[in-house]
Amino acid sequence: MKKILYTFLFATLMLVTPTVYASTEVYYTNNEGLDMTEQQYNNLLNQGFTEKQIERMDYQTFTDNKDIEASIVAQTKYYYKTTTTMRNGIQFHTSQLLTKEEMEAELQAKKEQNPYSPRDVYGTYYNGASYDDYKVLLVTITNLDDDTMRYKLDTYWQQMPYTRSHDIMGIGVEASKVQINSIIAFRQDWRTGSDVSEYSMGCYPKTESTGGSVLFQLPSGSLSLLESYMYFTVDKIPGVNTVTSLTATGDYAHATATVSNDALNYYTVNHIGGIVLYSPYANSYDTIPNAYAYFDGTW
């Protein structure tokens, strides 16, 4: 009788004890028609992808990242205003950091002064001309697992650049602590004046012991949106077991003259100076203060 009772109780427990499965219900479908569960969507957010980037995400990027459970350990946003002036055939650049509120106020004032002044014009600087560019950089360090960190740099143009040639994005790393162990992922998104959204992953990547970067062509024509991002992963160099601090140095060099992809051979990137350009292209790009993300902890 006891044997029958125990068997009955065991069978009952098997029937009423719930089995927990990860939800496969579609939580979000993006513009590319990719269905995502809530877990996958949150995984992407926790890796540093923005909602807009997830909305536009392509199949390969989604597949590569959807199952990675990560956490953002450092993230900083910087607001830049760069003024370029042409005098006697020589370009002069001045850049300054603004607060979010200062940038919004300046852009609003420009719009009110001349509502028909196109924020999307492009062309060539002429003598005596002066133009202001506004952009935002977002630097992120994400912990992917015990052995891997991801460095990511986002650029958001708030007023479209006048010159459209080969720009450079880069992230400097501390070569005494980490090394790049992946390819460099890149994507550029833009929206034309006719409200058509386009994107490209085309770039010239460059990996050095001191950092990673991409050289890429800006789109021409009238634009209402221009954004880009790049990222790569790092691990600790041989001999380093524990890291208690990390610095990711983000930088962006905008070409204010027409340059070719040969510029790839005339710059480097590091965690102290950011993007460092050499002749003959040193005067063909503007310069901005570096954008830093700092991680303090044990890794």
Mean pLDDT: 89
> What is the architecture of the largest domain at the second tier of CATH?
Sandwich
Predict the CATH topology of the largest domain.
Immunoglobulin-like
**CATH level-four homologous superfamily name of the largest domain:** Agglutinin-like protein, N-terminal domain, N2 subdomain
The tally of beta strands, per DSSP, is 17
Largest sheet: 8 strands, antiparallel
Domains (count) = 2
The percent range for strand residues is 35-45%
CATH class of the largest domain: Mainly Beta
**Distance linking N and C termini:** 58 Å
Uncertain residue segments: 1-21, 116-120
Helicity level: 10-25%
Order of helices and strands: HEEHHHEEHEEEEEEEEEEEEE
General shape: globular
**Which secondary-structure class do the elements indicate?**
alpha+beta
Number of helices: 5
**Rounded Rg:** 24 Å
Task: Write up what this structure looks like.
The chain is α+β, with helices and mostly antiparallel strands. The protein has 2 domains: 2-65, no CATH class; 71-296, Agglutinin-like protein, N-terminal domain, N2 subdomain (Immunoglobulin-like, Sandwich), CATH 2.60.40. Helix content is 17%, strand content 43%. It has 5 helices and 17 strands. The chain has helices at residues 2-16, 38-46, 51-55, 59-65, 100-113; strands at 28-29, 35-36, 71-87, 90-98, 130-145, 148-159, 166-172, 178-180, 185-192, 197-200, 204-208, 211-217, 223-236, 245-253, 267-270, 274-277, 291-296. Strands 3, 4, 5, 6, 8, 9, 10 and 13 form an 8-stranded antiparallel beta sheet that branches. It has a 5-stranded antiparallel beta sheet with strand order 11-12-7-14-17, with no helix packed on it. It is globular, with a radius of gyration of 24 Å. Mean pLDDT is 89; it is low at 1-21 and 116-120.
